[in-house]
Predict the structure.
Amino acid sequence: MKSSQTILTLRGVTRRFGGLVAVNKLSIEVKEASIHGLIGPNGAGKSTAFDLISGLTSADAGEIIFRGEIVTHRAPESRVAAGICRTFQTPKLFDEMSVLDVVATGRHLHNALGLWGSMFSIARKRAEEARTISAAREFLTTVGLGAKADAPVADLSYGERRLVEIARALATEPKLLLLDEVTSGLNPVETASVGELLRELVRLGLTIMLVEHDMKFVMGLCDDITVMNYGSVIAQGSPGEIVQNPDVVAAYLGSPRDGQRSRRSLRADAPACP
Amino acid sequence: MNFSLQLLSGLAVGCIYSLVAVGFSMVYRAMGLVNFAQGDLMMIGAFIGYSIIVNLPGLPFWLVVPLAAAITACLGYAVAQSALWPAMQRGASQTYLVLLTLGIGIILSNGARLVWGANPLVYPIPLTHETLRIWDYPVPAVYPFIALTMVALIAGLNVLFTRTWIGLSLRAAADDAQTASVMGVNHRLASAISFALAAGIGAAAGVLYAPITFVSADMGMIGIKAFAAAVLGSLGSIPGSVIGGFVIGIGETLGGQLVSSEYQDSLAFLLMIGILLIKPTGLMGRKG
Amino acid sequence: MILTRASLAATVLLSFASSAMAKDFPVGFFGPLSGPAAAYGSESLSGAQFALEEINAGYLGADKIKLIPADDTASPGVAAQAVQRMIDVDDVVAVVGGSTSAGTAAAIEVTKEAKVPQLSPLAVDSALTQARNPWFARIAQSSTAWAERTAEWLKNNKGARSAYLLARNDNFGVPLAEAFERKAKEIGLELKGRIAYEPSSREFKPTLASVASANPDYLVLWGYYTEAGLMAKQMAEMQIKLPFYVGSAIGIDQFRDIAGPAAEGTYGLLYYLAGSIETDAGKHFVQKWNERYHRAPTQYEGMGYDAMYVLAGAMKRAAASGGVTKQKIRDEIFSTREFQGATGPITILPNGDAERPLPMAELVGGKVKLDTLLH
Amino acid sequence: MSTIAKEAHTASHQSTSGVSRHRRDWAAFAVIVGILWCLPLSLGGFYLYLGLAVAIYAISALGLQIMVGLAGQLSLGHAAFMGIGAYTSVLLQKNAGVPFPAALAAAALAAAAAGLLMAQLIRLSGVYFKIATFGFGVVVHQILSNWTALTGGSAGVRAIPAIGVLGFQIETRTGLFVCEALTLTLLYALLIRLSHGKIGRAFRALGQNEAAARSVGIAVARYRMMVITLGCAIAGIAGAYLPHLMRFLSPESFTWYESLTCLIMITLGGLGSLPGAIIGAAILIVAPEYLRDFAQYKMFAFGILLVASMILLPRGIAGAGMSLSRGKRMHAQ
């Protein structure tokens, strides 16, 4: 890609839960306006990595630098303000709102009126609300759900919920978008259109990180890939390099002998049995 | 002499709190539900025990306890299946579920008042007023029953949870409902059984508490203190609930004398808030 | 057609005329009829209704009283609202109630504002008659009188030198304890200690241990019967042997159930004890009640009965001296002198308090036995 | 035929959100405020008294609604904050001669401060917060009953002074009602405005999914504090009016049962709905008056009503009314 400036740097980031090291000395560099894939078997620490970047959990060691600023221990809301926004493995919407309202919550930090302002300044409130709603409509249209703006969230299909979640994240106007398993539960047509959408967003300058199990999707879309296993990085590079990396083939895709089983878990994300 | 007597009665009341708290914890683990009707199920159990004693005179007390527990467990099963499960399946919020159990509690306590009357009832059996002498200490005759039931129930629960398929599937369902359903466990059944068991244990506590005091429709308020016990011992942890019950039972008995009896009611909650401020997940909490 | 209309008009007129001659006076009654304190309200209500049957059979001539009962659940807010409704909607000429001090305290503010006479059968808090409501009177002893009689009886009749005081921490127990303490100081009865406990308490062993270590001659409790029962029981469990004064609890069956054998030998000053009043009115009431219910009336039933009669007496005198108005009823209630009630001769004092004999009783062989009738 | 169906479809959708939701909220406001001002004043007498009681509990329920229904912060000690407001206002008026408007403001501030203290002291989430609010309610009730020197203890406070506003003494029931109805109308309007904008959306987001709310930059801890403080302040305002209605003040008006009653009000009316809170308050105050003969079944019936409404009408009476009117409109099209 034309720009190769680094937007996000993770340096030796570690997170422990009790005795378990969920993420171990994770170091990643994400280039601006690129798509960076984060893959690995179940329990590799990918979602924890997203939690660390978005601030839902705090690192025990290491540094997270976003656009030149250290954000390692900042609160999640201040990272959203800085330009990091995420989605969840299973879409987390606000189930008793309309679709439009859900997306409008994404405008939270772009609105200025506080407690008193919302109650007492009539004209400013009206203008702000009108801006919020039209912006929310725009982002809904971006993900192709403009027609569903007024539907209650409860009426949406699973795929639509994913798209609404993306629209809500986009509404925060992030610089870096973290998508956690964005294709799981989508049919091939929906997956393809999400791929299209992501490409378009990157073309407009957005940086995207993906945690993904759909290998075809990842390989076809990503500029760079980081492979994790047991909380540590085992490989980094372009899709072409990753596919040929013997460590990845051994650890992730499994050795040829038991390849059948691992391959299945790789795609379907079967639950971790003890 | 007086001190050990008070300690003993603190332990006895602590046992009652523990049993109700164990019920709170079981339901919380199995269903992720804070059951505010737990105390009222205890009260219903005590009333059912009264009706058993009146209608089957001569039935030994050690049979009244399991019988009342079984009947209340059936009631609990019905409540879980008819009212709670549909709401949980709809993915209702915690707020909604808590309000639902509060509503069930109101129905139980006021229903009991309509059925058994507003006046307090006393078990018409000698046990209520008998005192034993153990090593020269006067001990109310019901205390050995409380101690035995406590030990039996805790041992029974331990066996049930670790040795039988029911317990294993309950634990699986409690720890991870999704995995459990993949493994073929019927989460609905597991939830309802947990709720019924908790109701039964609560009822046993009610029947055992009745001879110490009396049975009345507002007895369920004890359940709220038991809830404080469960919380300070870490909600969801069975050993934590037992310890929490003892902390509150003994704390109230001794604290009432040390602090001031005017504030005895607040003591359970102040203890709970204090412990949570020091250790936010309770005494037996895993994460620090 | 015209004829029928005329006859209809005549009927209407007639019915008006007859109602002008024989009136139905609406009278409100409130008290806890549900909830934990229901016994006080429902028993005094059934006493009042029993009296009402007799009153409506000719005590007021052709006039009748229509009783409008309401449940205040012992809550001040509900009591105020219930009484307000009786006054606004039912246009009552008087209110009988309440049965708990908290409910009554809220209600007297309403009757004061609306200028409606109120007569309470059971509320004892002395603050009620000090609230400067000229419309409020009661036939129940004030907490001051109740506590003072008890202190004097302990000192003079029982030769007690010291006492330990336990009080339910609400506006029933606290005023009684305070009045008792004042009187005890005055007459030289030593107070070894005073503890207030929470109304919801069920575990009194720590408190009782403190009492035992102070070793008073008497333990005096101002509380409800449930607490009295538990204390007696727990004292027995702890093998503390102290003469125990439990107030009106001694007359309540549930106290004896809860305390069990430990109730034996407790003392109490009752509102009323069936059989303790040797007057005609006293005998008549117990006899009639026995005929109907095959048991003796309880103290609250007796009080409800007398409250109704004191009010009816005032209404009767008011009717005789011009007309039954609220003002007149109020004046006549306050001029009640030596009214021959079932619970003894009743005199209403200028401040609204009552003078009435009070039976001090002891529980002997499971039966409440009169010790002394205190005047 | 198909175009009609399509129009009906869009109409039903439009009524669920955006500008038309605002319009709908204000329509409900107009209806409820209209009834509030007309009914008790025109009927007078005891209905006016009932109107006073309804208005007080409606204010209190509105405060609880934004906490519980909107922002999902379940409080089991709401009556305690009414109590703090009531005692603050009465003691200031009685002992310091503070005029009512200032005492009202002080009541709101005191209750808000107590709410903030509760939220700060008990910086707990979820389950722990709920039981802690219950404990807080018990502790406040015990302080009100036992701090005799300040509160008069369990005997209560009597001789409540009349409300004085700008030198006028409001002694009639009508005057008191006008004050209360003004307060309720104003609060209701302000809360509708609040619920429509950024803050209201943040409250709802917080109540519906905390992690998701955090992910869009809502400072969850701050908004939780804000909504608890606000809800408690409103309870304090309601509490400040209560003694003027009853002319008597006692800790027994602020027990766990009162907190429970407020919770039933908002659930029955519809969790999360502002008009629902007012409707719920009206039903729970007025209905028992017409079912006096069944007084002993009152709490039992409330329990049945609560559970039945939760199972049959999960969005309460207000929600059911809304979907009914929406259905009618669809038919009309």
